[in-house]
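Because showing beats explaining, we think one record worth quoting, sequence and C-alpha cells together, and here it is:
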Amino acid sequence: MDILLYNPLSRNGKNEKFINKVIQHLRKQGNAVVSYNILAIDDVDAFASGCNPEDRIIIVGGDGTINHLANRIYDLDIKQDIFMYQAGTGNDFIRSLKTKDKVVPIKRFIRRLPSVSFQDKSRHFLNGTGAGLDGYIGHLVNTSRFKKSKINYFRHAFEGFAKFKPIGAEITVNGMTWREEKLWFASVMHGAYYGGGMMIAPKAHRNSKELYLVVVKKVPKWILMLIFPSIYFGGHVIFKKWIQFYKSTEIIVKFDKPTYLQVDGDVEYPVDMITAKSYE
C-alpha cells in the first residue's frame, strides 16, 4: 500500500486537486493508496508502527516538509521505505539528486544528515543553513504577502540587499579561526542548491561527509547585486576576492550581534552563533 503524506501548508499540499491527481497516478500503477495530513500526525513512531513494513511512505511537499519529517524520525527505526513525489521545479533537495523519476526514494539521504546548533537548539538540514543576509532574505520571503516562488525570492533578495548591513564575525574551520569585519553571509551547504535553484555551492555533494562553507564578504552592495543572478548557474565562484569556499566536517561562526538564520528555508531570530557538524 502507498501511504501518501501531504503538508496542507505547502504549495502543492494545499491544492486538493493536485493531491487527488497524485493519488490517481499511484492507483494507475496498481497500488492501493491512503492519504494523511502530515501535520495531524502527533506520534510518527506510532503511526509508522501501525503500517505494514512493506508499505511505501510517500511525501508530497517541499524542502521544508522533508526537513520537518527528517528531524522527527531521525532517531527512530522506521521500517518502511520513504519516497518523495516529485512535482514542479522548486525542490532543491530533489534537484540535487538529478532524477526524473516521479516517485523518488529518499530514506538513505534523510537518515544521514548534518546538523546546526544555535541558541540551545539543534536541527538537521537537507540542503543548507545560512546566517546574515541569507537568513534575512528567508525572513522576508516567509513573511511576504506574495506566494513563495523563484520570482518572489528574487524580489526579496534585492530588498535584502538594500536593507541588510554587513556584520562582523569570527569563523572557525578545520581548527583555524579568523575574523571577517564586513560579512554579508555565511552559508553551510550539504547540497549544491538552495533558494529554489541557486547553485550556491557547486561542488557540494550530499554523498560526501564534508560540508561546504560559503563566505561572502567585503563586496560593495552594487557589485553584490550584479553577482547575485550568476549564483543560479554557479558563476559566482569566479569572484574570489569577495566569495570564498571552505570544506570541513565542523564549522563555527560567531557574530558580533544577533542576526537571522535560515535552515532549509525556515528562519530563526535572533542568532549570534552557529555550529554546523557533519553526520556521525
